[in-house]
Structure formats: C-alpha cells, structure tokens
C-alpha cells in the first residue's frame, strides 16, 4: 500500500529501459518503494536496468512485454498482478520516430502510432482493470507537450501522443471514485538517448526533473503534471494561436 504521502511500495514500469522511468524508480526507491517490476522486451539492457535498481536495495523483477503485441498484454501483466498488489503503474514506453523518413515510409509512421497509441491503450486498460480490481493504485502515463498541437517538425509523434493524452483523460474520468488515481505527465524536450542529436527546444528538461515532478504529483494526487511547469502557460498560448501565425514559428 502507499504511505501517508501517496508514494508506492510497489511499482510496475511498462517500458523497463526508459530513462525517465528508471530515474523515477530510483527516486521512489530512495523514498519508499521496495518492489519493482520492469516490463519490456527481453534484452541485456533490461537485465542491466534491473541489476542497477537491485543495487539500490529494491526487490526487482523483469517480465517480458511487447507494446506491439497487445494480444499478450493481459497474460504478461496478469503475471505481475498475480504476485501481489501493485501500488503504481508507470507507462513509459514510446518511440520518437524520424519525421522525414516516416513521411516517406507509411509503415514506419504506423509503427510509431501502434507503439505510442495502440499499444499504450491496450496496456493501460489491462493495468487499469487490475488496479480497479484491487481497489487502489496510481496509473501514471507519460504523454508529451508534442500532443498539444500538431507541429510540422513532429506531427506523426505528436498525433500519437495527442491520442494517448485524450484517452488517458477519459480513462481518468471513468475511474474517478474507484480508488484508482490517474495522472498524465506532459514533459517538454527531455535530454535523453532518444533525443540525442536533436536540437533542443526552449525549457528542455532531464529525466531526473521529470522524476521529481512525478513524485510531487503523486504526493498531491495531481491529474496533470507539466515538466517544467512553465510549459503549461506556453502551450496554452500556442494552442490558441491562429494557424497562419503558428505555421511561421520556427518549431
């Protein structure tokens, strides 16, 4: 069960090699979390992530999970929940894609959509059902400010995150009053392996900063968290900017 500050004793990460997820796990282990499940495709990277968290004193397990194979999600995640209650599920998988390449190769664009949206819809519904059955828990979903408004530079990725964000908002409303807390996290540009080599945008952040914001959001039982917080005002302005002006922005 969670402690008095809303922090979990047990954590399930969907996307077990995500830098943001691992930074969050490290932070939560330092506070309260003692059991961690890392779900992802079997790989040396997944095993190394588990070993690194074990070194911090947590009981860490891995489970085979593939976002692109929704037919296996119920069985894979069911194994985790069968071992005991999970206080928090963190959905952290996703791919950025290559906008220029993906525009020319529709199947590559579809893979971005299937990973970031279709796979996430399946995994969150399976997780939400399990959390609801146990009567408590938090479902934290990593969205992105890219989903707030389509940009020429990354509208394929952005559209997948827009779909995920809208879906998660609706799921949060559906679960209101059930004991399950749903929180959407909207980071801006995060300095990570996924964004290596890309030009940074203003208000760039780090996995550690996102992890801190997640902890604060859990304590406050927030429904939406922006990282950094100033992006909320920035995106509000951009969302309402006339399209003719928006097209001319260097973003």
UniProtKB/TrEMBL annotation:
Coiled-coil spans are none
Identify the SUPFAM superfamilies for this entry. NAD(P)-binding Rossmann-fold domains
So what EC number does this one have? 1.1.1.333
Q: Which Pfam families match?
A: adh_short
GO MF annotations in UniProt: oxidoreductase activity
Signal sequence span is none
Which PROSITE patterns does this one have? ADH_SHORT
Key word Oxidoreductase present? yes
Query: What Gene3D superfamilies does the record point to?
Result: NAD(P)-binding Rossmann-like Domain
Q: Which UniProt keywords apply?
A: Oxidoreductase
- What InterPro entries does UniProt report for this protein, alphabetically? NAD(P)-bd_dom_sf, Sc_DH/Rdtase_CS, SDR_fam
Q: Which PANTHER family match?
A: 5-KETO-D-GLUCONATE 5-REDUCTASE, DECAPRENYLPHOSPHORYL-2-KETO-BETA-D-ERYTHRO-PENTOSE REDUCTASE
- Record-stated family: Belongs to the short-chain dehydrogenases/reductases (SDR) family.
Protein name, please? Answer: Decaprenylphospho-beta-D-erythro-pentofuranosid-2-ulose 2-reductase
Q: What species is this protein from?
A: Streptomyces machairae
